[in-house]
Amino acid sequence: MRSASEKAAAVSALRNDGKQMELRACAKKDFETKQSSVFAAPRLPLAHLLTAKSGLIGIFLSTFFVFNLLRLTPAFSWFDKGHRIVGLIAQANLTADARKEIEKILPGGMTLADAAIWPDHEGRSIRDFDPLHYVRIPEAASGYDQGRDCPEKNCMVEALKWFSTVIADRNAPIMMRRLALYYVAHLVGDMHQPLHAGRAMDQGGIDISVSYRGQTTNLHFFWDTNLVELEPGNEEEIAKRLTANLTEKERLKWQTGDPKQWTDESLTLVRSHAYNTGSSVELSNDYVEKARAIVRRRLAQAGIRLAWLLNIAFK
Q1: Where do runs of H (alpha helix) occur along 156-272?
Q2: What are the residues whose beta carbons fall under 8 Å from the beta carbon of 313, sequence distance 6 or more?
Q3: What are the extents of the domains in the chain?
């Protein structure tokens, strides 16, 4: 039995915990309100920004100024592990020239793995950039078509093409190249996750509820996070293991293509496997094991291809 003083202390602690939770909730709401006000000014369509370099430079510079003011504010976002693995694989396959140029562009101490998760944290404050993380392709279509699927060029395919040209431009402002590098490192990863080329009707699997081993989530999150978490070891160990037995023939085969081809690969995989969950909400072990093999391969491909893009850009 606890004494009266101990009970009183426990009640006080609970009240303090409740107050702290309320304060954190209020702080988050206040932060989101401030973000809305910061970015609520009239904006040009994103498609115009992606074709008007001077306008985008202004947006980049003002955005970085805002983030420097808010840099201590915590981010409310997850899904980092897969992107960090891609960044680690790429880092291990960079040329000396590429590594040197990346060190110039990124702020002190930031690695390529760190850069790869920036768009899912600070980058989410730029609401106009949200569509850059995916593309939606009609079910009857055989592959990606820019005119049909991304007429305003505000999808991951066109964004990766554009940002890749920016990082290679040594005459561009360093802050502009930095933001572009964040997105190149991130979008190559997004592009290799099959459900980022998923259907519009279910938001790339977000609206599909699934369950596995007693845990319920949505299909997109399951591929983004759960399948990666099933891999044993930390990020560094997984990155090394995924490429440990990679042959030179496989490496050269992967170091080809372009964002459209890599997106079409994901489209094929999302149709052939990701959406074939069966009639039950509960995913079968067979489905999960096949999905894990796909995820391992796509993470490795993304890392090798990201390094390839950067090595070309920084020759």
Answers
A1: 156-168, 174-191, 219-221, 227-229, 235-243, 248-254, 259-269
A2: 98, 164, 167, 168
A3: 1-40, 59-313
Question: Do residues 186 and 178 lie in contact, with contact meaning Cβ atoms separated by under 8 Å?
Answer: no
Burial class of residue 288, CB neighbours in 10 A (0-12, 13-18, 19+) = middle
pLDDT one-digit tens code per residue, 45-98: 444 444 444 445 444 444 444 443 333 333 223 369 999 999 999 999 999 999
* Element counts in the chain: helices (H) and strands (E): 15, 2
Q: Compute CA distances 106 → 51, 99, 114, 132, 174, whole Å.
A: 25, 11, 10, 21, 9
Q: Choose which CATH entry (3.40.1170.60, 1.10.150.240, 1.10.575.10, 3.30.70.260) describes domain 59-313.
A: 1.10.575.10
Classify the phi-psi angles of 68: left when phi > 0, otherwise alpha if psi is within -120 to 50, otherwise beta.
alpha
pTM: 0.77
pLDDT digits (tens, 9 = 90+) for 252-288: 999 999 999 999 999 999 999 999 998 889 999 999 9
Q: For residues 152, 121, 119 and 234, what is the CA-based torsion angle, rounded to 10 degrees?
A: -140
Cα 167 from chain centroid (whole Å): 18
